[in-house]
Sequence to fold (304 residues):
Amino acid sequence: MTLKNRYDFVLLFDVKDGNPNGDPDAGNLPRVDAETGLGLMTDVALKRKVRNFVSMTRDQSEVTESLNGDKKRFEIYVKEKAILNNQNKRAYVGIGKPELLEGEDKKRKGGNAVEEARQWMCKNFYDVRTFGAVMSTGINCGQVRGPVQLTFARSINPIVALEHSITRMAVATEVEAEKQSGDNRTMGRKFTVPYGLYVAHGFISAHLANQTDFGEDDLELLWQALESMFEHDRSAARGEMATRGLYVFKHNSELGNAPAHSLFARIQPKLKNENSIVRDFSDYTVMVDEADLPQGVTLQRIVG
Fold:
């Protein structure tokens, strides 16, 4: 079933004694706004967790039935060790035109075949029809502008990035062992945020959803992923992370009934004591203004 409504949503999540999203250009330090000290987490990192949740909960080795009867709709296009051009080849085989993969035609820049391939990719790959993809860099399957878009997540208050020295009671090679003079202890570093509460905003366009075949079953899976993605993404580096709030503003029209920013302003996490040292979600209160919502807008509290 296609979407008939626009959605805007607020995602709240926290981290305790972990690194939610290290910056590889800064030695894997937690990302931070240099001017304000607020912690950052990229939209790409959030989408990665959604992809991992979908991949885990939908068995890719079996044919999966969705709510509207279509099959194999929940594969993931951008996944670990994937070769994207090989994924694109599958589309031309799927539409019955494998001959276009040969010779000069394999990088076709337009035509009906490219549009058919684009539609095939949307139908079969959850992340393509959800977030969009550029699939024209090699074997051309066109470009998709996804109906679901996320912002960077930003912490409510400035974070502190702590650096910890760690030791390992072993070495990797005999050469390293000789350098240690019999002591195989090696040193390392890890970085953590003692505590941070982050907020991200999301947008879902019904108009774009109809172009990619993003339907009600896909939407329900997205809510499940945003609610539970941290529960299945545990690692020593990330500490404790959890979704603390998922507030969805549903419009009764495709174009929407109110500006997104005015709706987001109704969700306000605040410290209970501005002078306290923050170490837990209980140090915050989340103010939700549900009074006098714009006509045609309803608020769904999925978490929180």
Residues 7-158+191-303 form one domain. DSSP finds eight helices and 14 strands in the chain.
